Amino acid sequence: MEIRHTTDDELDLFVDTLHAAFGRFPETPSEDGGGVWWSALETERNLLAVTADGRPVGTAGAYSFELTLPGGVPVPAAGVTAVGVLPSHRRRGVLGAMMRHQLAGLRDGGEFLSVLLASEALIYRRFGYGPATYTRRLTVPRHRADLALPRARGTAGAPEKGPDTGTIELLRRAECGEILEEVYDRYRRAQPGALSRPHRWWARGAGQPPIATTPRYVAVHRDADGVPDGYACYSLGEGDTLTVDETVAGDDAVFTALAGFVLGHDLVTQVEFKHFPPEHPLRWQFADFRAGRVSDDTDWLWVRLLDVPRALTARGWFTDGELVLDVEDPFLGEHGRYLLTVRDGVADCVPTDREPDLSLDVSDLGSVYLGGTAPSTLVRAGHVRAHRPGAAALADALFRAERPPHCLHWF
């Protein structure tokens, strides 16, 4: 079997093989080749597993993204996608061979982070990926959706933050593509765990709404100067349920304003917020705390470190301290022990022979890397071993982010 990159004229072969692996048939693209999720694939980063007689039996691709790390640091990250093996060739090592070939190629290209969305949670941990961001759905019955007045008061008895002074304009998706692209790009640069959406995605309508040009209404929030700084993309479906595909906002006040807008929609029985961020304060803003029902609480972005020192020194840090991390990478057959030293928000990470504070798998390091999973949680779960009292607590303090990481992007 050979693992090779696709050529420019093999996109249809790649797409057909991938769909066959999942028992599906491709949608019909528009005349210019857009309007389907795979129209943003980067042909030069697609891999085919081919048998000795030339038959394609497996696929794996990658996108060129930027991932925002804690501290608002955007770095390159390979977005692994389109991974599949024909049913006739499963359990023969095809997937493992493609993953090994892909990781080696990413390293050779100078990349130190890889991310993916896992179709099955059991598959990708063995390749060194760990769940790093989480998402959920919030459903709010319309008749229980009243928002309470803020209770916090300043020193002079006034609210800590004044009321929203912006405006909301209702547009159709087809009218505001440039606004969506601009607002999302500003948002993702400040949100840990967020991925870039290259212009190619928007131009070709590649992905899920609002990237896709599927008919949607968009509530666009503008600040006091008229500059767009948030949006909520939504549609009204069966059962009078208004579904919000995603809410993008520069701050909590803008998010609340957009939430209030969709929650006040007439002739709606309930509002569902997809990709609702963990620990978001909106539930606390309802007059009825039980108004919001959380469901579909699940993992989203999985992270894989390809170069531990580079990855750890790239992100921002918010507590000083030292940790010795003993990291196993079974899939690549590697092992390293590193001294992580953080001073004034900057990290140094070098090999060391010192006794470890924590021993962990590279997939567990991926889970804690963005600050969305506490190292102490993995210690308690039996995944990470703490070698001295206080090591887990120090790791929690070191790896925390300025706010919980969250990823909206589907790929």
From TrEMBL:
CDD domains named among the record's database cross-references: NAT_SF
Record keyword Transferase present: yes
Quaternary organization: Homohexamer; trimer of dimers.
Stored NCBIfam families: PRK01346.1-4
Alphabetized PANTHER family for the sequence: N-ACETYLTRANSFERASE EIS
Family label: Belongs to the acetyltransferase Eis family.
Record-given protein name: Acetyltransferase
